[in-house]
């Protein structure tokens, strides 16, 4: 029970992190001012928190909130709300550059480890030895068309770059079909795809104009 409660706290802390707020427009909508408060009730409605909470008592969870050492937020008991410790400034390009060496993109995930976000979190956490969990957070990139909950690819955010090699080795030994690439290479690949799409669209437009001139 205690371990699950700590996972909930860790997940809430991640929701308020710079990384998540740069990607999560819905969560960002609650952080409109430096002193914005986000009620616990809102966070408890999140699917992942619900899955982690299962049948645990909310009162017990509130007690854990009061003791837990959050990095990004503080729990204000009298208002039953969370508040970011530092003001959030939106600068996605600059922030992602600063985090470049702590992120990997994982794809071709089998449903046995990624049927739900909870499954994926547990699987990645268990890949680390000696109870030292290098996982900081997960940002879903693509879900299965057949099963909307199953995750096919995601950005895995680690606590620091030292964990990347460990994670790569563990994943490759677990399943060679899973593809894991550094975030730099993933961004390079995505930019190439965008460039190809633009070139293709430009060629189609030129052909349309050319056909129109002939008429």
Description:
This is HTH La-type RNA-binding domain-containing protein. GO terms for molecular function: RNA binding. Residues 1-92 form the HTH La-type RNA-binding domain. Keywords: RNA-binding. It comes from Dermatophagoides farinae (American house dust mite). With 215 residues, the protein is an alpha+beta fold. The protein folds into 2 domains: 2-90, Orthogonal Bundle (Arc Repressor Mutant, subunit A), CATH 1.10.10.10; 100-190, RRM (RNA recognition motif) domain (Alpha-Beta Plaits, 2-Layer Sandwich), CATH 3.30.70.330. Helices cover 53% and strands 17% of the residues. The chain is built from 11 helices and 7 strands. It has helices at 2-15, 18-23, 25-28, 40-44, 47-53, 58-67, 92-99, 111-114, 117-127, 162-174, 183-214; strands at 37-39, 73-76, 81-84, 103-107, 135-143, 151-158, 179-182. The strands form 2 sheets. A 4-stranded antiparallel sheet has the order 5-6-4-7. A 3-stranded antiparallel sheet has the order 1-3-2. Strand 2 (73-76) and strand 3 (81-84) form a beta hairpin. The mean pLDDT is 87.
CATH homolog superfamily of the largest domain: RRM (RNA recognition motif) domain
Q: According to CATH, what is the topology of the largest domain?
A: Alpha-Beta Plaits
Q: Based on Cα principal axes, name the global outline.
A: globular
Number of helices: 11
Q: Estimate the helix proportion, in percent.
A: 40-55%
Main pleated sheet: 4 strands, antiparallel
Structural class: alpha+beta
What is the strand tally? 7
Radius of gyration: 21 Å
First-last Cα distance: 74 Å
What is the second-level CATH architecture of the largest domain? 2-Layer Sandwich
Strand content: 15-25%
Query: Spans with pLDDT under 50 lasting ≥5 residues?
Result: none
Q: Could you state the order of secondary-structure elements as H and E?
A: HHHEHHHEEHEHHEEHEH
Average predicted confidence as pLDDT:
87
Tally of domains: 2
Query: Could you name the CATH class of the largest domain?
Result: Alpha Beta
Query: What topology, given as strand order, has the largest sheet?
Result: 5-6-4-7
């Amino acid at each position: 029970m205690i371990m699950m409660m700590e996972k909930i706290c860790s997940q809430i802390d991640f929701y308020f992190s710079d990384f998540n707020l740069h990607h999560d427009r819905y969560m960002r909508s609650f952080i409109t001012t430096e002193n914005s408060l986000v009620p616990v009730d809102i966070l408890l409605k999140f699917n992942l928190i619900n899955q982690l909470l299962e049948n645990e008592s909310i009162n017990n969870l509130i007690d854990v909130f009061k003791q837990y050492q959050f990095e990004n937020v503080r729990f204000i008991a009298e208002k039953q709300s969370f508040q970011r410790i530092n003001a959030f400034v939106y600068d996605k390009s600059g922030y992602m550059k600063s985090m470049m060496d702590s992120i990997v993109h994982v794809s071709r995930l089998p449903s046995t480890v990624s049927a739900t976000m909870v499954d994926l979190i547990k699987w990645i956490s268990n890949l680390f030895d000696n109870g030292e969990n290098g996982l900081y957070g997960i940002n879903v990139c693509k879900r299965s068309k057949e099963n909307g909950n199953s995750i096919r690819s995601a950005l895995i955010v680690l606590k620091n770059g030292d964990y990347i090699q460990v994670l790569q080795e563990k994943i490759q030994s677990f399943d060679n079909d899973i593809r894991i690439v550094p975030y730099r290479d993933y961004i390079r690949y995505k930019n190439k795809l965008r460039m190809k799409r633009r070139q293709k669209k430009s060629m189609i437009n030129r052909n349309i104009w050319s056909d129109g001139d002939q008429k």
